[in-house]
Amino acid sequence: MVKTKSPLLDDVAAQRDALTALCQDLIRIPTLNPPGRDYLEICEMLGDRLRDGGWQVELVRAEGAPGDSDAHPRWNMVARYEGGRPGECVHFNSHHDVVEVGNGWTRDPFGGEIADGRVYGRGACDMKGGLAASVIAAETFIAAHPEFNGAIEISATADEETGGYGGVAYLAERGWFDPDRVQHVIIPEPLNKDRICLGHRGVWWAEIETKGRIAHGSMPFLGDSAVRHMGAVLAEMEESLFPLLASKHTEMPVVPDGARQSTLNINSIHGGEREQDPSYTGLPAPVVPDRCRIVIDRRFLIEESVDEVKAEVRALLERVKATRPSFEYEVRELFEVIPSMTDEDAPVVRSTAAAIETVLGRMPDYVVSPGTYDQKHIDRIGKLKNCIAYGPGILDLAHQPDEWVGIDDMVDSAGVMALVLEELLG
Ligand SMILES: [Zn+2]
Fold it and tell me: Distance from the CA of 188 to the center of ligand 1, in angstroms?
């Protein structure tokens, strides 16, 4: 049954032009990452706007975080608005950085052009449209209910596209997402306006190196080829590991379907002599390779533990060792993220689902992301479980040429966010 629409939705619809203009203004600040450009400009632009509206604004530089330098300081903006009565805090977190432009554009990537009901530009979809929607939702809600319960926070944070260490991770480590000051978090990533993203799969990256002994290529029997050893590792992966991963299915509603199982990608392989610069005109040298390295990207499920994931790879290497007398290897761990999935009964999920039903006239789909995003830091460092990603924009358009966000989609999801505030803080 569709509930009666709140007058708040009319107020949000009346802000359509303001929402579009804010999205354009955000796109016009080219916050490219890497290297991390114009972070201070975007934080100041948003900070000035919110301060004028009565918000307490803090700009926080992630000093010493990876990527932070005087040339490219990692600036973050956090704004808080206290209602008139005690209550809980709803926090909207958006990353302000965008990925490189790439080729294939027919529009100005930083022009914020409007055509056919869309705003175009790098970051329109991922995720300046979502950031603009959350600002308009909060401002509209405050105007309608100035004496609301609790508090609202809006943050615009750095470096999500490169791991979030100069952004949400830095803030979470300093208590900004502690459950005693923030109770609900919505990350307006472009997951489509009718879907609620509950979390993401886990990640383990590692480099595996096989070792050999260098010798003249005409007498390989005097050396030991690290590339042949790695060949044996890859053969064992094909034989036993990939079928095992394909058999592990998850109850997590991961999209797309292919990611609803464990996966492993071999990101790179390097062995033997270094590849020469294209300007080199000579022949390669005849040597037996004494080192070979691969980097693996293992994505895992909530049903698996990271220890089990690592043990599988080590067991595989031990099996290879058992059949090859001179086999030696090393595993260097690079990066890990545990899977995160918020319960469908969590308050922020229930409120958002009800708001989507009111605005769009149907129940949302619940999804889980195949890759990770800043929810990982809010969960693991901040210890806050009541967190989702919800925002306008079509996920497949993220990072593409001619990226755009639909104006109707921004207005609809701003309406959803405003209703969530009304439900949780009204
Ligand atoms: Zn994003």
Answer: 8
Looking at the chain, the domain(s) classified CATH 3.30.70.360 span 202-337
Ligand 1 mean position to 161 CA, how many Å? 7
- In CATH, which superfamily holds the domain spanning 7-200+340-425? Zn peptidases (3.40.630.10)
pLDDT in tens, 88-119: 999 999 999 999 999 999 999 999 999 999 99
> Which residues sit with Cβ closer than 5 angstroms to ligand 1, an ion?
126-127, 189
Cα 74 to ligand 1 centroid, rounded to whole Å: 17
Element (H, E) at 366: strand 365-369
Per CATH, domain 202-337 is 1.10.10.10:
no
Residue 220 and residue 226 in contact, taking contact as beta carbons nearer than 8 Å = no
Q: Does this model's pTM top 0.70? A: yes
The predicted-structure confidence for 334-346, as pLDDT tens digits, reads as follows 999 999 999 999 9
Ligand 1: distance of its center to the CA of 398 in Å?
8
